[in-house]
């Protein structure tokens, strides 16, 4: 019997909802893999007691195998807090702790001890305030730690406009990748070049094949301007940058639609048969995806040598320690991580 994938879950900002969401994963009888938390066992124990969560923590020693999942049991790779922590109260001293949890998970994935990593939310402001001036977020930190030049942020929801209970098996009905991420709008147009767009589309195409098993993924590409430039009347980026890039990649066999007006692309008729959408900037694509499936979506980093997924929300300091935070996004992220790990493993098996 092939063992289920090992999923390293970093518990995120200790004052936020990450620790309690990680604990609640252990109570789910349908976990798709062997979840191991990366965090402070004492913090997790205190949060479990506060919320009356019946979870048994098992601290694993270096090299000790992660056991198969059992409801109510949470293995932990221990990382010590730098300072005491209370729900909802940020402590700059714990910024190093948060980064260390990431380092442990990254090293485990690169070293073959974990098959994927799933990240609970962190608080960028605290990490910047602690003196890590170059920190921009999970995505860029993982890029640098893994030694790659380019990564792509993609969000996926398990079901777009799907009624009833979400399907936690990891299937994704709507995927939106971003050509640019956290940039002021004034900088977006200059950041989109033929070279950058080509790199991003190659990553999206390759990883949809590698991690999602799509032989020839069909990608719809948004225009940058309203009405995709209206034939040059509302901007020239589509004519001068986007269309030449898409045509060149189509000649190589990529299935690319566009550039398309974003205001009509995100409708059921235009999304039919589409495996992913590439939006030109953050707020062009993500509001639509989050409206369709907030709490049922996950953030995926493409272009890494490892699998990484995350939640679609922040630290929710106002909810921390109250037991009312929704576990939906973390469950979707965990399911997608397991699915991607299994796909990647199958693709490399002789």
From TrEMBL:
<feature type="binding site">
    <location>
        <position position="290"/>
    </location>
    <ligand>
        <name>substrate</name>
    </ligand>
</feature>
<keyword id="KW-0664">Pyridoxine biosynthesis</keyword>
<comment type="function">
    <text>Catalyzes the NAD(P)-dependent oxidation of 4-(phosphooxy)-L-threonine (HTP) into 2-amino-3-oxo-4-(phosphooxy)butyric acid which spontaneously decarboxylates to form 3-amino-2-oxopropyl phosphate (AHAP).</text>
</comment>
<comment type="pathway">
    <text>Cofactor biosynthesis; pyridoxine 5'-phosphate biosynthesis; pyridoxine 5'-phosphate from D-erythrose 4-phosphate: step 4/5.</text>
</comment>
<feature type="binding site">
    <location>
        <position position="299"/>
    </location>
    <ligand>
        <name>substrate</name>
    </ligand>
</feature>
<feature type="binding site">
    <location>
        <position position="139"/>
    </location>
    <ligand>
        <name>substrate</name>
    </ligand>
</feature>
<dbReference type="InterPro" id="IPR005255">
    <property type="entry name" value="PdxA_fam"/>
</dbReference>
<feature type="binding site">
    <location>
        <position position="138"/>
    </location>
    <ligand>
        <name>substrate</name>
    </ligand>
</feature>
<protein>
    <recommendedName>
        <fullName>4-hydroxythreonine-4-phosphate dehydrogenase</fullName>
        <ecNumber>1.1.1.262</ecNumber>
    </recommendedName>
</protein>
<keyword id="KW-0963">Cytoplasm</keyword>
<keyword id="KW-0170">Cobalt</keyword>
<feature type="binding site">
    <location>
        <position position="282"/>
    </location>
    <ligand>
        <name>a divalent metal cation</name>
    </ligand>
</feature>
<keyword id="KW-0460">Magnesium</keyword>
<dbReference type="GO" id="GO:0051287">
    <property type="term" value="F:NAD binding"/>
</dbReference>
<keyword id="KW-0479">Metal-binding</keyword>
<feature type="binding site">
    <location>
        <position position="227"/>
    </location>
    <ligand>
        <name>a divalent metal cation</name>
    </ligand>
</feature>
<keyword id="KW-0521">NADP</keyword>
<keyword id="KW-0560">Oxidoreductase</keyword>
<comment type="subunit">
    <text>Homodimer.</text>
</comment>
<dbReference type="GO" id="GO:0005737">
    <property type="term" value="C:cytoplasm"/>
</dbReference>
<feature type="binding site">
    <location>
        <position position="182"/>
    </location>
    <ligand>
        <name>a divalent metal cation</name>
    </ligand>
</feature>
<keyword id="KW-0862">Zinc</keyword>
<dbReference type="GO" id="GO:0008270">
    <property type="term" value="F:zinc ion binding"/>
</dbReference>
<dbReference type="GO" id="GO:0000287">
    <property type="term" value="F:magnesium ion binding"/>
</dbReference>
<dbReference type="GO" id="GO:0050897">
    <property type="term" value="F:cobalt ion binding"/>
</dbReference>
<dbReference type="GO" id="GO:0042823">
    <property type="term" value="P:pyridoxal phosphate biosynthetic process"/>
</dbReference>
<dbReference type="InterPro" id="IPR037510">
    <property type="entry name" value="PdxA"/>
</dbReference>
<feature type="binding site">
    <location>
        <position position="308"/>
    </location>
    <ligand>
        <name>substrate</name>
    </ligand>
</feature>
<dbReference type="GO" id="GO:0008615">
    <property type="term" value="P:pyridoxine biosynthetic process"/>
</dbReference>
<dbReference type="Pfam" id="PF04166">
    <property type="entry name" value="PdxA"/>
</dbReference>
<keyword id="KW-0520">NAD</keyword>
<comment type="similarity">
    <text>Belongs to the PdxA family.</text>
</comment>
<dbReference type="GO" id="GO:0050570">
    <property type="term" value="F:4-hydroxythreonine-4-phosphate dehydrogenase activity"/>
</dbReference>
């Amino acid at each position: 019997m092939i063992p289920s994938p090992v999923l390293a879950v970093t518990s995120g900002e200790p004052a936020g909802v990450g620790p309690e969401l990680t604990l609640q994963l252990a109570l789910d009888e349908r976990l798709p893999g062997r979840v191991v938390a990366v965090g402070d066992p004492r913090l997790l124990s205190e949060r479990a007691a506060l919320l009356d969560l019946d979870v048994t923590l098992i601290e694993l020693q270096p090299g000790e195998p992660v056991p198969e999942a059992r409801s109510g049991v949470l293995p932990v790779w221990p990382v010590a807090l730098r300072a005491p922590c209370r729900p909802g109260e940020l402590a700059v001293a714990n910024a190093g702790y948060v980064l260390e949890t990431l380092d442990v998970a990254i090293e485990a994935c690169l070293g073959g001890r974990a098959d994927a990593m799933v990240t609970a939310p962190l608080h960028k402001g605290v990490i910047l305030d602690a003196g890590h001036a170059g920190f921009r977020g999970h995505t860029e930190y993982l890029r640098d730690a893994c030694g790659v030049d380019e990564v792509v942020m993609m969000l996926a929801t398990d079901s777009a406009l799907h009624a009833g209970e979400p399907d936690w098996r990891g299937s994704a009905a709507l995927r939106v990748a971003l050509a640019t991420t956290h940039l002021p709008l004034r900088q977006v147009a200059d950041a989109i070049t033929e070279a950058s767009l080509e790199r991003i589309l190659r990553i999206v195409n390759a990883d949809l094949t590698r991690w999602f098993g799509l032989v020839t993924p069909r990608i719809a590409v948004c225009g940058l301007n309203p009405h995709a430039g209206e034939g040059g009347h509302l901007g020239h980026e589509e004519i001068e940058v986007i269309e030449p890039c898409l045509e060149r990649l189509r000649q190589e066999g990529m299935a690319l639609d566009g550039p398309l007006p974003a205001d009509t692309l995100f409708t059921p008729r235009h999304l039919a048969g589409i495996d992913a959408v590439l939006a030109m900037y953050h707020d062009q694509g993500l509001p639509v995806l989050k409206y369709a499936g907030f709490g049922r979506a996950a953030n995926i980093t493409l272009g890494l040598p490892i699998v990484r997924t995350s939640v679609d929300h922040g630290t929710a300091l106002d909810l921390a320690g109250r037991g009312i935070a929704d576990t939906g996004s973390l469950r979707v992220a965990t399911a997608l991580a397991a699915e991607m790990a299994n796909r990647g493993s199958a693709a490399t098996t002789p």
